[in-house]
Design a protein that fits this description.
Layout lengths: L3 H29 L7 E7 L37 E6 L5 E5 L12 H13 L8 E3 L2 H4 L13 E3 H11 L2 H12 L2 H14 L22 H14 L4 H4 L3 E4 L4 E4 L4 H4 L3 E9 L3 E10 L2 E10 L2 H18 E7 L4 E8 L5 E6 L3 E6 L6 E8 L1 E3 L7 E9 L2 E10 L8 H16 L2
Parallel strand pairs: 12-16
Antiparallel strand pairs: 1-15, 2-3, 2-10, 4-5, 6-7, 8-9, 9-10, 11-14, 12-13, 13-18, 15-17, 17-18
Length: 433
Amino acid sequence: MLKKSTFMHKNNNIFLKNYKIITIMLLFLFIFSPIIYAQDSVYVWSSESSELKTNNEVSSSISSSNETHQTSTSPTDLSLESGGAVLIEQNSGKVLYDHNMHEQLRPASVTKVMTILLIMEAIDSGTISYTDKIPCSENAASMGGSQIWLDVREELTVDEMLKAICVVSANDCTVAMAEYLAGSEEAFVQKMNEKAKSLGMNDTTFKNCHGIDEDGHVTSPYDIALMSRELLTKHPDITKYTTIWMDSLRDGKSELVNTNKLIRNYKGATGLKTGSTSVALYNLSASATRDDLSLIAVIMKAPSTKVRFAEAQKLLDYGFNHYEYKKLASKGEAVKSIIVNKGIESQVNGILETDSGVLIEKGQNKDIEQIIELPDIVSSPITKGDILGNITYTLNGEEIGKVNVIAENSIERIGLVSMIEHVYLKWFTLFRV
């Protein structure tokens, strides 16, 4: 039996001999190999193809924000009684149903969607945390309407404040949070209006942070949909609060029951906010998600609370019955291995740069085609993330999406130094004991 040292010595001799041979061969190939240029190839296939199928369930935005101005061409009349209403698809912001959606109306406590949005921005930016203690001023304690009767000697955490605002629409907690974040309610309202302007809420003027009736405090169904979409897409953690049906505060002494009855009764409901006064009547921003399709239905100036919930459900049902969200591709999914000319590796994987999906009418799924534009050969060097090609998705001849295909990893060009390093690494790994 050979001793270990003898074995290692013989292996090292083999390594050195083979190393010289392979180095000479690679130099020969490098010097005399022909130059090959990349060529594009195009593939067309339907959604029935086995290629690019995925089981990942990653939500993605399917279009730019300017699509929020597109409206449905559907002639369907849902015969709504409310003063104004709108249904949008959450990811794209596309309008699926419009009933006086730009009518300026009083929002009541649906105003708090903007207040909650600014609170969540402060949390996600690190300005405040869920555990911060929030004091109650005399002004906050004096608020009427929906409340949990905060005491000026009392402090609640941001987490508890959000729970009270989202579940029972507490005006006192809303004002306390506004004062804590901006120094005063007036300063906070200014921030609300600035945010509204940045979102394109052109029908909106906020006069307070809670929604109690005040002259000039107006918005529209469309604008409520815009700020609801911003909250849900940018700060999805809010649904931890907006989906609570029953809970409590103060060690169980204060019972909370959600004012949004759809949370209990509608499949897939994720929120969002109710509001009502004797002047504004009954308002609601209702959101729900089923099978990756997320919808937001806004009802304003409904004649009764029963009508607002019924008409919100009617809008959501219309959306789920007529539309679906088709996932086209998932970020990081492998598309094709491409030959690399004069690289230290012979191939590079082309992967999808981003997620992609599209809102379509039900029944159109089988009509989606994709065109893959990728070269058969690429030249080194290649940097991880380099764009190698793209995939275009079409429906009835019209483009509905496009995703870049990028290099999964970097590949250096073969040179004398890199070739020797590469060969040495390969053989060292092979003979390592």
